[in-house]
Amino acid sequence: MDILKYRYDAENLKVALKCRYLHICPYGFMNNSGNYTAREIVACVRKGDFDCLPQNLSAAARISLDTIKDSESARECDIMIEKAALLDAICESELMSRLRAQEDVPSYNIAK
Hints:
The chain is an all-alpha fold. It contains five helices and no strands.
């Protein structure tokens, strides 16, 4: 996994969730620059199965799928997904791995 591509995965996830709610085709709004193709993200959203995504992004997607109902909750879901992608990138970065090995640094999880 390329942690620098998590932002594209998050963008595609946000698009897929909103388009599912609006009942429109998401592919015109998505890109294939992430770790997952647009089709893979859409399949995750359709099935409601986000286990293939990184831990925090997966948790944020599950919560968002249940809460995205209007423009207010959509904005909150966007922020939660963006934070989750950033947390996953930080947690999986080489620097964080080194810090955990040297100190007792807790792992962070969006679902906590």
